[in-house]
Amino acid sequence: MTLRRASNATTRAATVAAGPHAGRLLGQDETITSAETRLAYRIGRLVGHGGFGQVYLATRLGRSTTVPATVCIKVSPHINGWLREAYFGQLLGDHPRAIRVYDVFPLTNRPGKRLLYGLVLEYAQQGDLSAFLSRTSRKWSETAVRREIAGILEVLGKLHRGQLLHRDLTPLNVFVCDGPRLKLGDFGIVRSQTDNRGITVHTLNPHMAPSDIVAGAAPKWQARDDVYQVGQLIGMLVKGSAHARIRKPEVRVFNCSDHLKEVIYRCIAERSKRYESANELIEALSKPPAALKVGALRTLRGAHLAFTGILSVKRDVAAKAARKAGATVHSGPSVRTSVVVRGKPNKLQAAGRDAGRKLMEIKRLREKGHRIVLLNEAQFWRLAGQPPGGAPARTRTSRPAAPRAGRRPR
Fold this sequence. Notes:
The chain has three domains: 4-121, Phosphorylase Kinase, domain 1 (2-Layer Sandwich), CATH 3.30.200; 129-286, Transferase(Phosphotransferase) domain 1 (Transferase(Phosphotransferase), domain 1); 304-393, Rossmann fold, CATH 3.40.50. The chain has eleven helices and 17 strands. It has helices spanning 79-91, 129-136, 142-161, 211-214, 223-239, 248-251, 258-268, 278-286, 315-324, 357-367, 377-384, and strands spanning 4-5, 31-33, 40-49, 54-61, 70-76, 101-107, 116-121, 164-165, 174-177, 181-184, 191-192, 199-200, 220-221, 304-308, 328-330, 339-342, 373-376.
């Protein structure tokens, strides 16, 4: 579970297990010393607690060229999460978008007290993203959203390339430093996968996990589930609120470009439609998808065809004409689809004029190398024959206006 908040400005821990309601593990103004660096730290107020343990604001004592004067110290009686965070602190230590781990040590010189494991972490001046958005209620500009999410994705991409899954990309684990500048922290439940099939889910934060994971319908967490959580973060920045997860119907009314709406929708859509990794999402954010231009076709015979948009006739009438012309008609685009007939766009399309659900799927399939020819309705009827009542209304030639009374027509 995610660490409970005791104040706005903190680096937080997140896992499951023991005692978020236990008393303080370290005393106010207690001094602890690292056996690794010999630096001492004076413990201040408790700023967060959770399954991993507790997080305190602390002051470094003595001089150091590498550790700031103000830090957060995370302590836990559990060694497993401590080892993971220490490892990822070293792995990502030089990355400007990851919360720094400055010191790692067991707290051994405490006679009569339980053994604890400590991490000295970077202090995020503005707190976590959830607290920041709650405090400011400010929607982020699209430029800022793209820039800051790209930074978070750089860290996630490094994990994905190493076959590692973060699994807890929540607004409580993204921190706001001065700028504002987002940084990713809390790697307590990162796990390694041996292949792309994912890892079995034992620990998760239900607030930001995909619904199929929460329901147990998808037993293994995959990289595209990390992508789902990043999509949630993008939507929260655009919306200016992290109080609730973003729902798909919200996306079309967001105050951002249709391109960004499409990216958000693809991230939080069903698993098979999502971007497959952080790198794929980085590429999607950096450049718009190819334009949906109409193509050309000589015959519908043998085509696997789907319709999208609003046609000038009922859909079953058009489907009957397509079958008569030799095509196989499907309810929507798939890997078998070779032709899509596009009618007028629906004003309620999921993510803008060129981003209805079927249009997004066409783009995704094309990105994977599938050849799909897009036809407008006029092209379709030229291949399928005229619909009942003649040509589609928008392709008819308009009649000349009647001459005004008292004037001769030219």
